[in-house]
Amino acid sequence: MATEIGFFGLEKPVSFEGEGSRDPLAFRFYDKDRQVAGKRMEDQLRFAVCYWHSFTWPGGDPFGGETFMRPWMQGGDPMAQARAKADVAFELFRLLDVPFFTFHDADVAPEGENLSGSIDNFNRIVDVFAQKMETERVRLLWGTANLFSHRRYMAGAATNPDPDVFAYAVGQVKAALDATHRLKGENYVCWGGREGYETLLNTDMKRELDQLGRFLSMLVDYKHKVGFQGPILIEPKPKEPTKHQYDFDTATVFGFLQKYDLVRDVKLNLEQNHAILAGHSFDHEVKLAYANDLFGSLDINRGDDLLGWDTDQFAMNASEMALVFHEMLKHGGFSTGGLNFDAKIRRQSIDPQDLVIAHAASMDACARALVAAEAMLADKALEGPLAERYAGWDSAENKAILAGERSLEQVAERGRTLNPQPRSGRQEYLEAIVNRYV
């Protein structure tokens, strides 16, 4: 076993030991140098540790306070605590040997007396990040601004009825994008946790949607002005904390982006737990994003099937993820995106090593799912039956219909001579196929 040092009590990074290992601090499936679909496994999965759940969440819930009692949460000089938190964060990045991390601005540094003071605090910790990144291999997958926790945002940020709150949020987002650009982040995420409504009695929905469209348009313009090359990502979620959020799901966001002419510059960061809350599967949201050229990145977590809220548990369902990765590999995998662990250990998991074990176990589950997806794709296990089901549309005549070369009258006349019979959708057969691989 490794010599115990540091906050997590571990000296050596978690390493690959193979399927026979029983060490919870070792990888059984995640071999970062293994070739999968033409790339190293690490380059396919592009794991990122998130700053907020891992180092800022104290373990509280609506009925109880903190359980983790982390040293940097126990009072003292706020900036000193922020630097201590950064030290522990980079320790975890090193132990997991992950290529990326992500952050919210408000979780990186404490607020100041006004926006200028908050940005100054934030930039001082960004300086710490930049210095650490010079000697560490970890990079920034994306940054974002927290526009939902502070009471000023209780009625939204971009959609707030108070234009001063709107302006404050713009300043906060500008600083977060500047920091992301400085640290060579590969994306910038917008998550509108309060961009929605609690009641329609006090909500002008058209006005709020127009405000949100203008907010994102300004962000896109600024991105081009400063030369930020990555996409802006929106993270859909239907509800919680608000009753209804304007970025409800992939389909809703697609319509919004079309209306405000943002489709070229804005993509999606999708999450399993949010998909379930919207009444969809994770696979559904990913496939629809690809269908509309909106796929960007993934938050990799899961919800609890028995609970109707965003539990942000570590993803462990290899079968579910295999279908998502199958779709990704079909389209060549990630470009600027990755798998961000927007996940929390349970509030009873109070040992520091629980955080390491949770990440390692989920990385293993993802690796197992990726290998299964590669095998399914290579064997055309799902693609073959799918192509067969739609094969009729490959004829010249039927292609002409879809190409707009036949009128309604012409197609209707052809239909008069037909008597088509239904064919089995073979759902159970296909489900059995998936089970062969995972």
Descriptive account of the structure:
- This protein is of the alpha/beta class and 438 residues long.
- It has two domains: 29-378, Divalent-metal-dependent TIM barrel enzymes (TIM Barrel), CATH 3.20.20; 392-437, no CATH class.
- 45% of the residues lie in helices and 12% in strands.
- It has 16 helices and 16 strands.
- The protein has an eight-stranded parallel barrel, surrounded by four helices. A two-stranded parallel ribbon has the order 1-2.
- Strand 7 (139-144), helix 6 (163-182) and strand 8 (187-190) form a beta-alpha-beta unit.
- Helix 5 runs parallel beside helix 6 (163-182), helix 6 packs parallel to helix 7 (205-226) and helix 10 runs parallel beside helix 11 (318-330).
- The chain is globular and about 80 Å long.
- The mean pLDDT is 96.
